[in-house]
Amino acid sequence: MKDLITNLNKHFENRIRLGIMSMLMVNDWVDFNALKETLNITDGNLASHMKALEGEVYVEVKKQFLNKKSNTSYRATIGGRKAFNEHLSALEKLIKSGR
């Protein structure tokens, strides 16, 4: 049983990071406001979690101007996608082992 939980990625244990990565896995790019509104969190909370995911190179950031307003968008990197899929596989194994 111990082997099952060692395969879980600690960077995805938080519900907000789990939500962020879930959104990024099914969308090419997601902007900051869409993430914030969908996850119902504050600017600061989202920014701190994004910074942590950026630090692990799980997400890529694109900053641009749209209609003279700054816009920040994110997408999952190849490494981030791989790490998240491995985390999901470990969760599935853990769930199946409890049956």
Description:
The protein is an alpha+beta fold. It has one domain (2-97): Winged helix-like DNA-binding domain superfamily/Winged helix DNA-binding domain (Arc Repressor Mutant, subunit A, Orthogonal Bundle). It has helices at residues 2-6, 15-26, 32-39, 43-55, 78-97, and strands at residues 30-31, 59-66, 69-76. A three-stranded antiparallel sheet has the order 1-3-2. A hairpin with a 2-residue loop joins strand 2 and strand 3 (69-76). The chain is elongated, with a radius of gyration of 15 Å.
Give the gist of this structure:
The protein is of the alpha+beta class.
Give the helices and strands, then pairings.
Blueprint: H1 2-6, H2 15-26, E1 30-31, H3 32-39, H4 43-55, E2 59-66, E3 69-76, H5 78-97
Antiparallel strand pairs: 1-3, 2-3
Distance between the termini: 13 Å
Q: What is the number of beta strands?
A: 3
Helix content: 55-70%
Rounded radius of gyration (Å): 15 Å
Sequence of strands across the biggest β-sheet: 1-3-2
Could you say how many structural domains there are in total? Answer: 1
Describe the global form.
elongated
Question: Roughly what is the average pLDDT, rounded to an integer?
Answer: 93
CATH architecture: Orthogonal Bundle
CATH class: Mainly Alpha
Which fold does the CATH topology refer to?
Arc Repressor Mutant, subunit A
Instruction: State which percent range the strand residues make up.
Output: 15-25%
Number of helices: 5
Order of secondary-structure elements: HHEHHEEH
CATH level 4 superfamily:
Winged helix-like DNA-binding domain superfamily/Winged helix DNA-binding domain
Contiguous low-pLDDT stretches (5 residues minimum) are none
- Structural class call reads alpha+beta
Largest sheet: 3 strands, antiparallel
